[in-house]
Amino acid sequence: MKIAVVGTGYVGLVTGTCLAEVGIQVTCVDIDEKKIAGLKAGIMPIYEPGLEEMVTRNFQKGKLNFSTSLKEAIVDCDVAFIAVGTPPGEDGSADLKYVLGVAKEIGTHMNNYLVLVTKSTVPVGTANLVRATVQQAIQDRNENLEFDVASNPEFLKQGAAVDDFLKPDRIVIGVASPRAEEVLKKLYKPFVLNGHPIISMDIPSAEMTKYAANAMLATKISFMNDIANLCEIMGADVNMVRRGIGSDPRIGNKFIYPGIGYGGSCFPKDVKALIKTAYDNGYHMGVLKAVEEVNDKQKSVLFDKVMRHFDGNIKGKTFGMWGLSFKPKTDDMREAPSLVIIEKLLAQGAIVKVHDPIAMNEAKHILGDQVIFCEQQEQAIASADALLVVTEWADYRAPDLSELKASLAKPLIFDGRNICDASEMREHGFTYYGIGIN
Fold it and tell me: Which long-range contacts (CB under 8 A, 24 or more apart) does 208-214 make?
């Protein structure tokens, strides 16, 4: 099979590379000439564990190619994936101009039957727009080519995307014809040898499944953060509560860790888009509106603890921050809680020193010289008035407490991810603040 993947962002690059890994001929297309040149030279535009080695290996084997020409890549193609961005508009709706732009170009240059697959996260009904756009482009050429449109939402966790693609717990395909279903099942056969299913459904249901999945996970996070805040008020320990409810198989123990809110490229955008879709169709998503509200407030919880401890005056105080990315094993800074906390600290006249194992370069593009970037995590806490733990990187999980105490100007820690044991920290003389514990 010959595959084209349009878009070399997080989803597109992982998709194309993993397809090439099982021997499929793949061309990844992007209009960004610098990015394509970098990929040919082995320079990754994103950080994802295991991806760089796989890209390099398959490029050298000739199974994975990179191009700026969709016109060339689409010739004799069997399947084309659209994996371009769908950024949120001011009203929260997904902007489909890039998706439809790709659809038009494919319709202009395709020369045989192909299955056009939306891999980008798109609202219900997008497939109809894509189909109409392709059909119009074909008609403008006075051609009569057959094609199918399908939906194939991704369920990749940043930091574990390669494993998620190669060993999926399920693959969802939305199709409108047996022919498209047969093509996609053939394409994905190498990835379901572990016995996990390909779930075939109608296209609107597939489009909705992606949003529903992310909305559910976001809901679990906001629910647990709400419970954590109440635990602090009532004198309960959210870690005990989490263990108590997580043992119930109806609830499970994933996505119930309290913290300082979710971020990233998916949850915030997709929750907003689903709320807007409902609104446009005369329905109010009360639960998701609350999820969004709780998450926005939760990003300020650690800052609020800082202000209470210092009686509202942190001007001239120095804070060391461990972690910048919205989660570990990624350099993604989109909607990261760290940005909210830094903005609030700086507004109050504080000095902020930061460290992150991976996201420093990305953070520099966003923050410039507003903060002090430290190459070593020890540098970020040297003589600082307090340490703020913002991302739960493994690097931060087991610090030498004696060295930590000696480095800080004061033994004060605000732990936004509960990676430290509160009792142990206090036994070693630290003033310790976590989330949902006293």
Answer: 208/124, 209/153, 209/172, 210/121, 210/153, 210/154, 210/155, 210/172, 210/270, 211/121, 211/123, 211/124, 211/270, 211/273, 211/274, 211/277, 212/274, 213/153, 213/155, 214/121, 214/266, 214/267, 214/270, 214/271
HSE-up of 70 (CA within 13 Å, CB side)?
23
Phi-psi region for residue 27, left (φ > 0), alpha (ψ -120 to 50) or beta? Answer: beta
- 202, two tokens: 């109608």
For the entire predicted model, the pTM comes to: 0.91
Domains and CATH numbers, the chain: 2-199 (3.40.50.720), 211-297 (3.40.50.720), 299-433 (3.40.50.720)
Which active-site residues does the annotation give? 266
Helices (H), 143-266: 161-166, 178-188, 203-234, 238-246
Does residue 94 carry a pLDDT above 90? Answer: no
pLDDT tens digit string along 327-339?
Answer: 999 999 999 999 9
Whether residue 372 contacts residue 354, with contact meaning beta carbons closer than 8 Å, is answered with yes
